[in-house]
Specification:
Oligomer: single chain
Number of helices: 26
Order of helices and strands: HHHHHHHHHHHHHHHHHHEHHHEHHHHH
Number of strands: 2
CATH class of the largest domain: Mainly Alpha
Strand order of the largest sheet: 1-2
Strand content: under 5%
Shape: globular
Structural class: mainly alpha
CATH architecture of the largest domain: Up-down Bundle
Number of domains: 3
């Protein structure tokens, strides 16, 4: 491997750390929700807000980061994002109230939105054409890796809190477990900022700023001197052409000729989120705890979710150009549907009861004989069981002990639930998760591609926000069975739409696709 290739890979890897922080910041909250609910005495909608708030400002970050990066440069925006990630991590960890926790989560959302578009943009602008796809994929892999590492560090902090070692006690891993989970992100965020100091400015941005000599120096570190000269000339010509072109307008998206591609883009963007993937990823320990396996086991299984997501994302990256976009979407949506109905069945066959030993143990820790009324009673669903517990213990006491009591009283096929969750995540990760963005880059005509992707991406984020916000409320009002049944019904509708309406874009040029899809 040549020195130029090593340089390009090193720079892409540093920039792609933004993707890692994005994934980590979004999913680390999965381990936190169990602890902040009783500490801040949160309602279910407040709990959903703690998880989903980051998505709200991520949308804002996406909208402002693009124009700002054109003015100030890609590298500078990524450095701002690294600082915001650091501030968010430290501020969230030290938050003394729910209000301040949300404030610092919102700050992190701005960094998430900026990283989501600027990191792959920078990599695409510096990478040689023949390596662009692979190098940009590093960012997507890092997002999934960040999600996985967040699950792992949450589990690790939980286990350190149970150790009797003096160093774990002095650092307060038991007392401040959720604060450590959030705060540890400051370490990779600070390293990201330091790494960006050695990253050169984007050559395309330098050319736009008419700093062609600097751009040429950067290009020569990536390709041969001759190729660098050719690229400089080509990029300069393209920028001049773009400046002379009429800018696309928002109203262009809704013209009669664009109707088909916009409908396809919107529906695929909506169904990517409405099947509940971010409910599973961001509430994984909570879901597993509903199965009665206990807190430690629920965090271990959350790590398995992250690893499954990582492995099948890699599979998608290596098969998308061989199998095609539509086959992956069809296979994946079929798998998502089957697994969601498997989960529906698993939760519907569960029973809930507390035996004598559990009642005695909880009476010692909670005090009194508040659970005596539940002795010998079996409940057919989680809603009735939770209602009985709330009446017996009072809402505040139940919240503080919910995880342990639900784990002790739930009787179901936990293996079936684990297979359903892992199968769902695997099906998503190899299909509509990554494939949607590839499809968007090919589906929309050149003139409105950037505007169209921004629009459908914004709708996609809005649905993601609602799914995350409402999931705890759905569990408390509808129960696990009905919640996953709804996701399964959405998955069936998505599968039918993709089967009949989504075209195969593999092997066709962007111009060919425009002729076929835009009338």
């Amino acid at each position: 491997m040549s020195s130029k290739q090593l340089f390009t890979i090193r720079i892409a890897a540093i920039v792609a750390l933004g993707g890692f922080l994005l994934g980590f910041d979004a999913s680390v909250i999965s381990g936190v929700v169990k602890f902040i609910e009783p500490e801040f005495n949160l309602t279910k909608i407040q709990l959903g807000w703690a998880v989903s708030s980051i998505t709200l400002t991520a949308a804002l970050g996406m909208m402002i980061a693009g124009p700002m990066s054109d003015k100030y440069g890609r590298r500078k925006l990524l450095k701002y994002a690294a600082l915001l990630f650091t501030i968010s991590a430290i501020g969230s960890a030290l938050a003394g109230s729910f209000f301040w926790l949300i404030v610092f989560r919102l700050v992190g959302g701005l960094a998430v939105g900026a990283s989501l578009i600027i990191a792959p943009m920078y990599i695409a602008e510096i990478a040689p054409a023949e390596k662009r796809g692979q190098l940009v994929s590093i960012n997507q892999l890092n997002i999934v890796l960040g999600i996985t590492i967040a699950f792992f560090t949450n589990y690790l902090i939980l286990k350190w809190g149970d150790l009797d070692a003096s160093w774990t006690q002095s650092l307060g891993f038991k007392k401040w477990n959720w604060r450590w989970m959030l705060g540890i992100e400051a370490v990779p965020a600070a390293l990201y900022y330091i790494g960006l100091l050695i990253v050169p400015r984007s050559p395309r941005w330098l050319i736009i700023q008419d700093r062609k000599e600097e751009a040429l120096e950067v290009l020569k570190k990536v390709v041969s001197d001759t190729e660098a000269e050719n690229q400089l000339k080509k990029v300069s010509e393209n920028i001049l052409e773009d400046q002379n072109k009429q800018k696309s307008k928002f109203s262009d998206l809704f013209g009669k000729s664009m109707r088909k591609v916009i409908v396809i883009g919107l529906v695929v963007g909506i169904f990517q989120q409405i099947v509940g993937i971010n409910a599973v990823l961001f509430y994984a320990p909570m879901i597993f705890e509903q199965t009665g396996i206990g807190t430690d086991a629920s965090f271990i299984q959350a790590v398995l979710v992250g690893l499954t997501n990582l492995v099948f994302t890699v599979i998608a990256i290596f098969t998308i150009d061989k199998l095609g976009r539509k086959p992956l979407l069809v296979i994946g949506m079929a798998g998502i549907t089957i697994c969601l109905f498997l989960l529906t069945y698993g939760f519907s066959t569960a029973t809930y009861s507390l035996d004598d030993t559990a009642i005695t143990n909880f009476s010692k820790t909670i005090g009194g004989d508040k659970l005596a009324k539940l002795k010998g009673k079996t409940y057919e669903n989680d809603l009735l069981f939770k209602k009985a517990l709330t009446i017996s213990l009072g809402e505040e006491t139940f919240k503080a002990n919910e995880g342990a009591i639900i784990s002790a009283g739930t009787h179901m096929n936990t293996t079936l639930i684990l297979i359903g969750i892992l199968g769902f995540v695997a099906s998503f990760a190899m299909s509509i998760g990554p494939v949607m963005w590839v499809l968007f880059s090919e589906l929309f005509p050149n003139k409105i591609r950037g505007l169209a992707i921004s629009f459908v991406g914004l709708i996609n984020l809005a649905i993601s926000f609602l799914v995350q916000l409402l999931f705890p409320l759905e569990l408390s009002m509808l129960g696990s069975t009905v919640t996953f049944l709804l996701y399964g019904i959405f998955a069936i509708i998505g599968f039918v739409f993709i089967w009949f309406k989504v075209p195969e874009t593999k092997g066709k040029s962007l111009e060919q696709l425009e002729e076929i899809l835009v009338k």
